C-alpha cells in the first residue's frame, strides 16, 4: 500500500464491450492506476442460481492488466439478484414498521438471513477461486457500504442470542434496560424484540443495544466473506465505509478487521463547509486507521449535492478535495464512478468520464490530477502530525439518537463537528480519538458532549490530566453509563470530581437563543447551573436566571488542567478563550517514519493570494522554496522539507 492510488468504481457491465477498450485508453490518459470492479455485478456474474458467467469479467480484467491498471475486486453482495429474492423472500428486509421491502433498488437483504449469508459467502468463494491468481488484482473489496438494517424475525432471533451473550441473564438485562419503567420486565427471552415502531418512546437501552448488535452482526458477515477470500489470496482485503446517522457500524472497532481502512466521502455542503467536511471525514478515517495510512475509496468527481440539487465543483476543487484527503493520510483518491451511467437510478451522478465524454473540462481536470499524483507518491506511508485530539465515540452518538433528551437541539455529531471546526478554522490539525485511548502524546484533548462514558474511560481521561494533559470537556458530558443510566449526585456525573464542578439543573436555550458571557463571548443551545466546587471560574453567564454563575471553569489537576465549558460556544468565542487565530490557509503535515522528512500540504481557501513561510521543494511544480511561498486564491502546494 505504499503508493498513491487513483481511479474509482468501474462498472463495465453497464456498457457494451466495445466501450471497454476506450475506457482503458482513457484510464491510461488520466493516470488511473486502480479501479474497483464488480461492486454491483451479481446478476451479471450469476444470472441464475449457481450458473456463473465469468467470461466478461475475464476479458475486463485482462484488458485492465494489459493497460497497466490494477484492480480492487469487489464482492457484489450489497445487491443480490432478483432470483435470490424470489427464492428467499424471507431474506428481504423489514422496516421498523413491519413492512417487508421488495427487490428493485439495492441493499434489499437482511444480513441476518442464513440464505443471504451463505449466498454471500458463495459468490465471494466463486470469485476468489477464479481470480486469486489474476495479475491485475491489487486488493479485495468486500460488499459496499455496510449499514442496511432489518427488523425481521430472523434478526430478532439473532438479537436475542447477542443479548444472552452480553447479559448472561434476564435479571441483568432487566436491570440494564431499566425495564421496571413502563412495565417492560422480561420473564422470557422470546418476548424481547428489536426496537420496532411502538406506541410512544422506545426503551433507550434497547435502542442502543440493537445498534451495538447490528454492528457486531455485520462484522461477522464481513468476516465470513473475508475468510473465504483469505483462504486463497494474500492480497489486502477491505470494505468501503459509509458514515451517517443511519449507519449502525462501529467503524473504530471494525478497523482491526480490515487490512486498510477505506471510506466513501460525499460532502453535503456546497460552500466552504465542504472543505471542512472533507477535513472532518479524513481525520475520522485516520483515527479509525489508528494513524496509519487509509484510502479514500469513493468521492464525487464533478458535483457536491446538498440533497436538493447538484452543485458543479468549481475548477480546481476536485483536486483540492483529493489532496486534502491525501494530506490527512489517504494513500490515494478514488471516485464513484469511472463513467457516468446512461440509465439507472444514479444516472445523473457525476463521474470521471461525464456524459459529455472525455472532451470536457471535467475530464481534463481528472487527467491533470492524474499527472500530479505521481509527483506526490513519496508521501505514501508517512504519518500525519497532530497535537490536538477531539474525542469521538459512536456509542455516545447512538445513545443520543435513541433517548428522549432534555433538548431537541442536543446533537452529538454537531457538537463534535463544532469542536473540529474551531481548530480547522485556526489551521490546527486534529486527530479523533476514542475516550479510552492512550492520549499522552496530545497536548490538548477536547471532549464534546460525551453524554455516555464508561468508568474506565473516565479514569483514563483523569490519568491523562494528572500526567500533564490539557482537557476541555464540553456541556452535557459524563451524564450516563454504558447502560444509559444517569450517574447520580449531580452532573456532569463521570467528570464531576475531575472538573471540580457540580451541576444541579440544565437550562436548555431555545433553538435560536443566545446567552451572553462575561468575556464578551456567547453561548447557544444550552446552559447549566454550574457550581464551581474546586474549580476556578474563567467565564460567567451574564443576564437571565444564571446571571453571574460560572459558565466556563478550569481546575489544576496534577501536572495538567481540566476545563469545563457548560454551553455551546461558536468558533469566535472558542478562539477568544483558547487563543486560536483564524487562518484562511489550511496546513497539514505528514512526517516520515524516521522523522527525517516532513511534507506540508497548504490550501488557500481564500480568493486573494497569500504568502506563507516555507522551505524545501514544492513537489507539484518541482521548484525550490526558500523562506516563503506564494499561494494564489484557491491554490495549493505540497512542500517537502528536511
Ligand atoms: C455510495 C455508493 C456508490 C454510489 C454513491 C453515490 O458511496 O457506494 O455505489 O451510490 O454512494 O454517491
Give a verbal description of the structure.
- The structure is a single chain.
- Helices cover 31% and strands 22% of the residues.
- The protein is globular and about 75 Å long.
- Strand 18 and strand 19 (522-524) form a beta hairpin.
- The strands form 5 sheets. It has a 10-stranded mixed β-sheet, with helices on both faces. A 9-stranded parallel β-sheet has the order 5-4-3-2-1-11-8-7-6, covered by helices on one side.
- By secondary structure, the chain is of the alpha/beta class.
- Alpha-D-galactopyranose (GLA) binds at residues 144-145, 264, 266, 298, 336, 346, 349.
Short description:
The protein is of the alpha/beta class and 642 residues long. Helix 14 packs across helix 17.
